[in-house]
Automatic annotation (TrEMBL):
Amino acids binding ATP: K249
NCBIfam families: gltX_bact (TIGR00464)
Location of the motif 'HIGH' region: 9-19
Originating organism: Candidatus Synchoanobacter obligatus
Primary location group: cytoplasm
Top-rank taxon, per record: Bacteria
Subunit structure: Monomer.
Record domain Glutamyl/glutaminyl-tRNA synthetase class Ib catalytic: where: 3-315
Record protein name field: Glutamate--tRNA ligase
Top-level taxonomy: Bacteria, Pseudomonadati, Pseudomonadota, Gammaproteobacteria, Candidatus Comchoanobacterales
Annotated catalysed reactions: tRNA(Glu) + L-glutamate + ATP = L-glutamyl-tRNA(Glu) + AMP + diphosphate
EC class name: ligase
Length: 467
């Protein structure tokens, strides 16, 4: 049987780091082994579904470069790939279990359920679990509301499986009660849909976060009731935030959308996420997606929690950004920037060649571009007294320069220093303020190279008016 894995997002919000990792590891596993990577949208929780969330999540995955072999946008032989379009399948399967006595109609009201929970200190065993089908049918015909529950007869059984990450894992059957398969509004619940779909979609490996471990127990019971073979399960460890608590959407900006707006590249995010719980056998940390595919193995997936470390993400983003050619950077910047300088390919290439190496994120690139677009004098006080004289002298020398170049700019500065008897900061800071508004932050020779003589003189004129 060939390998088939899936990523099964619920459209209840945006795609976060944990989801990216689950998607990536499944994707790498499939690609490494010539298998299929399937996307299935688990949208049966009507109350929690958010309008448009699935399309946003699918777009985020595509932006990252994680493309499905089968899924909502490219259906294969196992569709539909939205659970909301598979309701009949779940209903039919639930009825099969009811007929076989492995599930039952349960008529407990919410109040009765609450009363049972407060009286009994164990998982629910419904009083309707042995009600005959005829009796149940009569109640349904009389208009009574009911759910379909799984009949959990496994209080004394321990379910054992060989977890792909954690090894032999045991889950006691009495950790759950008679759990719901189909709600009273006919909506099936996640655990039921998931087990039915993983079986019908011939999923061979289920790799997901360890928060699903208790679901795995319910799903094992469902597989067992149908007599189906179980897939190989693997549960990925938690991702912790800087405070060593589970990474929280509130404390850390960790959605793909946040990463895009903060200027991270898809390659860097994937590279970073790959290392959140997996390591290369020879310690290598920088990879392209193809390199990750060829080196990914489950035996190097770590059991212990991973720590989100923004410095490391920045380091990897710096690395991948520096692999980009200037036109690729300009293209990537379109997501967050509307700078007209991106369209000036010659200028932008020079900019990138001169200072590209210093940036960690596209946001930093964009902030630096702003210096060449706007001219806001922030450190005004440096354009008073001696500073003003320095700038005026520099202006005079430079305007007499007939062949403007970076060298001419630098020699005009040197001549200014000699003429005024100043050097170092006393010379550089006022000129920098006149040209980019602040006293430090960009090398003067870079400014000289990236501005024309007219721009330099225009900026000096404007600055002297403000200062
Ligand atoms: N829909 C579930 C979630 O978003 C996925 C569970 C699974 O992978 O089985 O958490």
């Amino acid at each position: 049987m060939s390998m088939r894995v899936r990523f099964a997002p619920s459209p209840t919000g945006s795609l976060h780091l944990g989801g990216v990792r689950t998607a990536l590891y499944n994707f790498l596993l499939a690609k490494k082994n010539g298998g299929a990577f399937v996307i299935r949208v688990e949208d049966t929780d009507l109350e929690r579904n958010q309008q448009g969330a699935e399309n946003n999540q699918l777009a985020d995955l595509a932006w990252l470069g994680i493309e499905a072999d089968e899924g909502p946008n490219n259906p294969g032989d196992y569709g539909p790939y939205y659970q909301s379009k598979r309701q009949d399948i779940y209903q039919q399967h639930a009825e099969t279990l009811v007929k076989e006595g492995k599930a039952f109609y349960c008529f407990l009201t919410d109040a009765e359920l609450d009363a049972l929970h407060s009286h009994e200190n164990r998982q629910l065993k419904s009083p309707y679990r042995d009600t005959s089908l005829e009796e149940a049918q009569a109640k349904i015909d009389a208009g009574e509301s009911c759910v379909i529950r799984f009949k959990n007869n496994w209080d004394d059984r321990v379910f054992q499986f060989d977890d792909l990450v954690h090894g032999t894992t045991e889950l006691a059957g009495d950790m759950v009660g008679d759990f719901v398969l189909i709600r009273s509004n006919k909506q099936p619940v996640y655990n039921f849909c998931c087990a039915v779909d993983d079986h019908l979609m011939a999923i061979s490996h289920v790799l997901r976060g360890e928060e699903h471990l208790s679901n795995t127990l319910r799903q094992l019971m469902i597989y067992d009731a149908f007599g189906w073979d179980i897939p190989q399960f693997g549960h990925l460890s938690m991702i912790l935030g800087a405070n060593r608590k589970k990474l929280s959407k509130r404390d850390d900006a960790v959605s793909v959308k946040d990463f895009v707006s903060s200027g991270y590249l898809p390659q860097a995010i994937l590279n970073y996420v790959a290392l959140l719980g997996w390591s290369h056998s020879d310690g290598e940390e920088k990879f392209t997606l193809d390199e990750m595919i060829s080196s990914f193995t489950l035996d190097r997936v770590n059991k212990s929690p991973a720590m989100f470390d923004r410095d490391k993400l920045n380091w990897l983003n710096h690395y991948h950004l520096n692999q980009y050619r200037s036109e690729e950077v300009a293209q990537a910047l379109q997501d967050i920037s509307s700078s007209p300088l991106l369209n000036d390919t010659v200028w932008f290439e020079q900019f990138w060649t001169l200072i590209g190496h210093q940036f960690h994120t596209l946001l930093e690139v964009n902030d630096t571009l702003a210096f060449f677009e706007q001219h806001e004098i922030r450190d005004k006080e440096l354009l008073l007294g001696e500073g003003r004289d320095v700038v005026t002298t520099f202006q005079g020398i430079l305007s007499n320069e007939s062949n403007y170049s970076e060298e001419a700019f630098l020699s005009a500065m040197k001549a200014t220093g000699e003429q005024m008897g100043v050097k170092g900061k006393r010379l550089f800071a006022p000129i920098r303020v006149a040209l980019i508004g602040i006293q430090s932050g960009m090398e003067l020779k870079v400014i000289g190279a990236l501005m024309t003589k007219d721009q330099v003189l225009e900026r000096i004129n404007a600055a002297l008016l403000v200062g």
